[in-house]
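Extended Data, panel c. Modelled sequence:
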Amino acid sequence: MSPKTKVAIIVAASFASLVCAAIAYRSFVLLPSLEAAVLNQLKDPESAQFKDLRYVGNWTKFGGMLCGKVNAKNELGGYAGFSRFWVLGESAFVDHQDGTYVSSDDPCAEFETKGKWWWLRW
C-alpha cells in the first residue's frame, strides 16, 4: 500500500469519525438540552410528544434555534393537540391554545435567513 493511499484512508476515517461525533452530539446532548426548556413550559412534561423538529444555526446551544411541534396533556389529563414551539438558548416559547405566545410568523425561517452560520444547518 502506497503512502498516499494510507494518508487518504486516515483522512477519510478521521472525517467519518468527526461526522459521527457531530451527529451524536446533536442527538444526545444538544437537542435534549433544548427540549428540556420546552418541557419546563408544559403542565405534564412526562407526556410530551415532539414532531417536526428543525434545528437551524451553528452547532452550539446558544448559536442556533430549535423549532417544532409539541403535544402534552393538559390539566384535565387529555392531550391538547400539537402546538408550535421554538427555543433560542435557554428561552423556550410555546404557542399555547389559550393565546399565550401566539405568533403568526415562523421564527426559525427568519433565523435561518438572517442568522449567521446559515450554511451549517442540519
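The radius of gyration is 19 Å. This feature is highlighted in the accompanying rendering.
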